[in-house]
Amino acid sequence: MASTAMAKINEDQVSKAVKALLKWKKLQSKKPQNLNSLSDEEENEEDEKKLKSEGISITKVLKFTKLKSEYKSFDSKLDLYGSYELFLADKRVMNLLPGLLGKQFYKKKRKVPVPVDLRGNSNWKEEIERACSSTLLCLGSGTCSVLKIGRGGMENGEVMENVLAAIDGIIEFVPKKLNGVRAFHLKFSDSLALPVYEDLPDQSAKH
């Protein structure tokens, strides 16, 4: 059931923005999402074996020790940043990653590693599927935050569903709920931002 705050969101306006952006963006053929998992265990094949046995598709498993030794320079970190769509990280090393991955990963908040529980007795498949089906919202000290909710190759309905679910989640998360939100916009990284909700100041209060 939609919340009272969600009733203020004009779904027609959201739908028009989604259609306009997807029409503007050249649709690309769908391809598997490149995933990189950062693990804290020593170099061995046990992680890969477990992932394979549980039918989990991960492009690369990068050990914590290898991250420390082979990705020291700015260029190497930049290459790593651009090589994968999504980064997952063992919860046990999350606090150590900002200093190792560098500002590129955290500056725009788009590829901040998503924490997963990779302890031996945890359900890896469930953890990874949960991480892949969710998105990360980082509220900074500024007035704008970015949330990734879809890709250009998705269908209108899929993006629409993601947008509404994201807005609903943000409203619950943000202090003061919808009253704490000035506007929602949709955009690609290289497109104009299309408004889907704006809380305009009451002009009559100024007179």
Automatic annotation (TrEMBL):
<dbReference type="InterPro" id="IPR028364">
    <property type="entry name" value="Ribosomal_uL1/biogenesis"/>
</dbReference>
<feature type="region of interest" description="Disordered">
    <location>
        <begin position="29"/>
        <end position="50"/>
    </location>
</feature>
<dbReference type="Pfam" id="PF00687">
    <property type="entry name" value="Ribosomal_L1"/>
</dbReference>
<dbReference type="InterPro" id="IPR016095">
    <property type="entry name" value="Ribosomal_uL1_3-a/b-sand"/>
</dbReference>
<dbReference type="InterPro" id="IPR023674">
    <property type="entry name" value="Ribosomal_uL1-like"/>
</dbReference>
<protein>
    <recommendedName>
        <fullName>Ribosomal L1 domain-containing protein 1-like</fullName>
    </recommendedName>
</protein>
<dbReference type="GO" id="GO:0003723">
    <property type="term" value="F:RNA binding"/>
</dbReference>
<dbReference type="InterPro" id="IPR050257">
    <property type="entry name" value="eL8/uL1-like"/>
</dbReference>
